[in-house]
Write a structure and sequence with these properties.
With 395 residues, the chain is of the alpha/beta class. The protein has 13 helices and 14 strands.
């Protein structure tokens, strides 16, 4: 039996690699879908550890550009933040990863596709929902969910056999990608305790401060400090710059797809800066109604993506609306990074609605404006409340 295993290099997939590869009649190949967060040494280490754990081969799919084009571009356009803060760092990747893994399994003639999702997390739903749409006839194996081995048991099993553990040693579940890094387990199993400083990965010991300028075209980041870059390269450059200033660190306590609460810590430096900058540029160039409906649809988009419904046709409809809204989201944004915060200090755009009018807020009305206009507007807006109060007085 030939099995393709979705391999992150974390504890669950390390354990699964050794367990499945050791079964009689099984040829196991591991596959990492690279959605960012890896450098060349880390990619080489993933391969080395997979082979050391017993994999017959290891595949690497570079999905960074496709992730931006098909997912992150819309999370920026929709200013998507789960629970008002978390930028869906991990949830952003899973639907696309499942799609690419299913394609690799089918093209490679594998009998089954295995993943290391637990029975108590969102990822199992995201993988299984995507695979139900994309590869309904492919056998899907989920041994961690079905057998429920505890993390301590997995660590002990690997140690007893002298097999390599993941870099974090198995205490935390760490996932890194273009759009950020998440940390689960340990203190995150409850709601009261903070992570120790040495558990943070990208922002550990950050003390820096700096100013930077981002350029956007059609809502897409295209330059950093005047240097043009494709979005993937820009995000990969921005992540360490912002992380050095402590930007992007946070905790997210929210609703899982399964209905209960869950908590993670996250570090999303580039996402924090880009979402903050993009939001402020939109305020300069879009109307209030455009932003109002964008906010609502962005919330729907993020919620569906979180639920594992990346392949839902509604998502393409929302993307079409978001694309229509981004034509004037062009210009430059200056951002100050310090003390873990990203503060927009200036925006410039050829489509600025601030400079398009002659009115100056708090100083002077528009040229030719009727001085009585604001009075009549106020009375018009207040009319329903006035009638409500009058009806109560007459009752």
């Amino acid at each position: 039996m030939r099995i393709l295993l979705a391999y992150s290099g974390g504890l669950d997939t390390s354990y699964l690699t050794a367990r499945l590869a050791g079964q009689a009649g099984v040829e196991l190949v591991t596959c990492t879908v690279d959605c960012g967060g890896l450098d060349d040494p880390a990619r080489a280490d993933l391969r080395q550890r997979a082979l050391a754990l017993g994999a017959a081969d290891h595949l690497l799919i570079d999905a960074r550009a496709e992730l931006f084009r098909r997912v992150l571009r819309w999370l920026i356009a929709g200013n998507v933040r789960r629970g008002g803060g978390y930028p869906l760092s991990v949830g952003a990747e899973r639907g696309l990863q499942a799609e690419l893994l299913a394609r690799a399994a089918q093209d490679g003639g594998f009998d089954a596709l295995a993943h290391g999702c637990t029975g108590a997390g969102n990822d199992q739903v995201r993988f299984d929902a995507a695979l139900a749409v994309l590869a309904p006839s492919l056998q899907v194996l989920a041994p961690i969910r079905d057998e429920t081995p505890a993390r301590a048991e997995q660590v002990a099993w690997l140690e007893q056999r002298g097999l390599p553990l993941p870099p974090a040693g198995g205490r935390y579940s760490i996932n890194a990608g273009l759009w950020g890094l998440t940390i689960g387990g340990g203190e995150m199993l409850g709601s009261a305790d903070a992570l120790p400083d040495d558990a943070w990965q990208w922002t550990r010991g950050a003390r820096g401060s700096r100013s930077l300028t981002l350029a956007f075209e059609d809502g897409v980041p295209v330059a950093l400090d005047g240097a043009a870059a494709d979005p993937v390269a820009l995000i990969e450059a921005l992540n360490p710059l912002a992380a050095a200033c402590g930007v992007g660190r946070g905790y997210h306590l929210g609703d899982t797809v399964l209905g209960f609460k869950g908590r993670i810590a996250y570090e999303a430096p580039a996402a924090e800066v880009l979402l903050t900058a993009h939001r402020e540029l939109e305020k300069l160039v879009l109307t209030e109604e455009q932003r109002f409906w964008k906010d609502h649809l962005g919330e729907v988009y993020g919620r569906r993506l979180h639920q594992g419904l990346f392949q839902d046709p509604l998502m393409r409809d929302i993307e079409a609306f978001l694309a229509s809204s981004q034509g004037r989201v062009r210009g430059e944004v200056t951002v100050q990074l310090a003390d873990g915060r990203a503060l927009v200090s200036g925006t410039r755009s050829p489509f600025s609605m601030l400079t398009a009018g002659s009115a100056v807020y708090g100083e002077a009305p528009a040229a030719g404006a009727d001085p009585a206009g604001p009075l009549w507007l106020a009375r018009f807006l207040a009319e329903p409340a006035r009638l409500h109060a009058r009806a109560e007085a007459l009752a």
